[in-house]
Design goal:
- It contains 9 helices and 11 strands.
- Helix 6 links the parallel strand 8 and strand 9.
- Helix 1 crosses helix 2, helix 1 runs parallel beside helix 9 and helix 3 crosses helix 5.
- It is globular, with a radius of gyration of 19 Å.
- By secondary structure, the protein is an alpha/beta fold.
- The chain is 34% helix and 14% strand.
- Strands 1, 2, 3, 4, 5, 8, 9, 10 and 11 form a 9-stranded parallel sheet that branches. Strands 6-7 form a two-stranded antiparallel ribbon.
């Protein structure tokens, strides 16, 4: 059903936001309260532990790497603050660099945040772009995708309702008592909180989505008309429920036409990009984005 009326669109989709929160920006608590009061659906935060000054990896968007990349707050600590001052706001990572974490520790942090927030957490999974950052974590760049898949399997073992052992190529865990558990009950191959995989379209990415996730976080949301049919075909071939696949365009700079296109593709949530800035500039951006919230 078309819910658009002139230029005053009333979107079916949920409108969430993402921002690089740093020691120089609006605080997590102020932002979270504003988002919930204004009717936004969620807050997604990226992560970088550090940015080596001497690096050869180019910034994916081109040009000089923005200042905020080296000042990013820890996503889980910031989301914990956001959870404490809200009741309905969705909380997510966009994305968690799973290869750069100890998976046993990460599984505990994820389950704890999901438990304390009442099941509001979405795990965004990513593979990273900064080879030097990953190397400092002991990650061999060419194996990072296989490492992420292995660590996701290990975490699913810890999140399982009953103790389950796991032994993979990169590590393992004994059958263990590991609580709290994520709030959501297991759904087929997906054990744990709602999980979305970020990255560029392609067979390797789609394999990850279909193996352990609920869907895809396409950065910027470009080219979906061409890539979605391929992902949906891979999803069906993997035996997944066609109605369960979630597509969440991420870090989007919105226009009415762009959101109309997403709505026509059946997309139910979009994550808009906020500036990494102080309180005044961020609140001004939120005010501009409010027109896209259903019912506004």
């Amino acid at each position: 059903m078309d819910t658009r009326v002139g230029l005053g669109y009333r979107w079916v989709m949920r409108i969430a936001v993402t921002i690089f929160l740093t020691d120089e920006t609006i605080t997590p608590t102020r932002l979270a309260r504003e988002l919930e009061e204004r009717g936004f659906a969620g807050l997604y935060l990226p992560e970088h532990t550090h940015i080596p000054v001497e690096r050869t990896t180019p910034y994916p968007a081109g040009g000089k790497l923005p200042r905020e990349y080296g000042r990013t707050l820890d996503a889980f600590v910031a989301l914990g603050q956001a959870a404490a001052v809200t009741e309905r706001l969705g909380l997510g990572t966009g994305i968690t660099l799973v290869a750069q974490h100890d998976p046993i520790d990460l599984a505990k942090r994820i389950a704890t945040l999901d438990h304390l927030s009442g099941g509001r957490f979405t795990l965004g999974v990513g593979f990273g772009w900064n080879a030097e950052e990953a190397a400092d974590h002991g990650v061999r760049w060419r194996t990072r995708r296989e490492l992420v898949k292995d660590r996701m399997a290990l975490m699913r073992a810890l999140w399982s309702p009953e103790p389950v052992a796991y032994e993979g190529e990169f590590g393992g865990v004994r059958a263990s008592e590991a609580h709290p558990k994520p709030v959501r009950k297991p759904r087929g191959p997906v054990i744990g909180p709602r999980t979305l995989v970020g990255g560029a379209a392609g067979p390797k990415l789609f394999d990850h989505v279909c193996t352990y996730a609920d869907g895809w976080l396409p950065i910027g949301g470009r080219g979906l008309s061409e890539s979605l049919p391929r992902l949906r075909a891979a999803w069906r071939e993997a035996g997944r429920d066609p109605e369960a696949l979630q597509i969440v365009p991420y870090a989007v700079h919105p226009t009415p036409g762009k959101l109309t296109h997403y709505a026509d593709l059946g997309i139910e949530e979009v994550v808009l990009q906020l500036p990494s800035a102080g309180e005044g500039e961020v609140l001004k951006a939120l005010e501009a984005y409010e027109r896209y919230i259903p019912g506004k």
